[in-house]
Specification:
This protein folds into three domains: 2-62, SH3 type barrels; 65-125, OB fold (Dihydrolipoamide Acetyltransferase, E2P) (Beta Barrel), CATH 2.40.50.140; 129-185, Nucleic acid-binding proteins (OB fold (Dihydrolipoamide Acetyltransferase, E2P), Beta Barrel), CATH 2.40.50.140. Helices cover 0% and strands 54% of the residues. It is built from no helices and 16 strands. The protein has strands at residues 2-3, 12-15, 18-28, 36-43, 49-55, 59-62, 65-76, 79-84, 90-93, 109-115, 120-125, 129-137, 150-155, 160-164, 172-176, 181-185. The protein has a six-stranded antiparallel beta sheet, with no helix packed on it. Strands 9-8-7-10-11 form a five-stranded antiparallel beta sheet, with no helix packed on it.
């Protein structure tokens, strides 16, 4: 058991028969009335974000979750397969538990979030930035740099990302997996 004084970003709590992670919280002490805590909670199972207000000192159940290092192996019609980096144990994860699965490539390291009590996989988190090779994009027009114009580029996993006009086929680019956007050209 923990109270609202123990809240911090990233903490996983049991709330309304589901597991939620605290995205944002704010302790509020109004001039009149009791103190309270405003929170934004993200459901681990559905990804939905809700707003909730707790009275100050309210007790909540903490969920024990672990982040374990895994390596992505392959995908088939049953889902995605990962191998633990230390024990070499392999697990199968369905597609809906993987955020931005279109940026997964073989051999990539990820973090698997596991509920410690039940040993069930809650989610698979990719690194924030990944480096991918552009497999196809239209050539940019020379001299068209007056505006910040973007064009679609197909990357090695088959996904499409919007990139600046100067990016060509064969270039390696850094992509932010949370916003699904181009960041920069990768250094060789």
């Amino acid at each position: 058991m923990a109270s609202t004084a123990d809240f911090r970003n990233g903490l996983v709590i049991e709330f309304n028969d589901d597991l939620y992670t605290i995205v944002q919280f704010q302790h509020v002490k109004p001039g009149k009335g009791p103190a309270f805590v405003r929170t934004k909670l993200k459901s681990i199972r559905t990804g939905r974000v809700i707003d909730n207000t707790f009275s100050a000192g309210t007790k909540v159940n903490l969920a024990r979750v672990e982040r374990r290092p895994y390596q992505y192996l392959y995908q088939d019609d049953m889902g995605y397969y990962f191998m633990h980096m230390e024990t070499f144990e392999q697990i199968h994860v369905p597609e809906e538990l993987i955020g931005n699965h279109e940026f997964l490539k073989e051999g990539q390291n990820v973090e698997v979030v596991v509920h410690s009590d039940t040993e069930t996989v809650l989610s698979v988190e990719l690194p924030q930035f990944v480096v991918m090779e552009v497999t196809y994009t239209e050539p940019g027009l020379r001299g068209d740099t007056a505006t910040n114009t973007l064009k679609p580029a197909k990357i090695e996993t088959g996904s499409t990302v919007m990139v600046p006009l100067f990016i060509n086929t064969g270039d390696k680019i850094r992509i932010d997996t949370t916003t699904r956007s181009y960041i920069e050209r990768a250094k060789a």
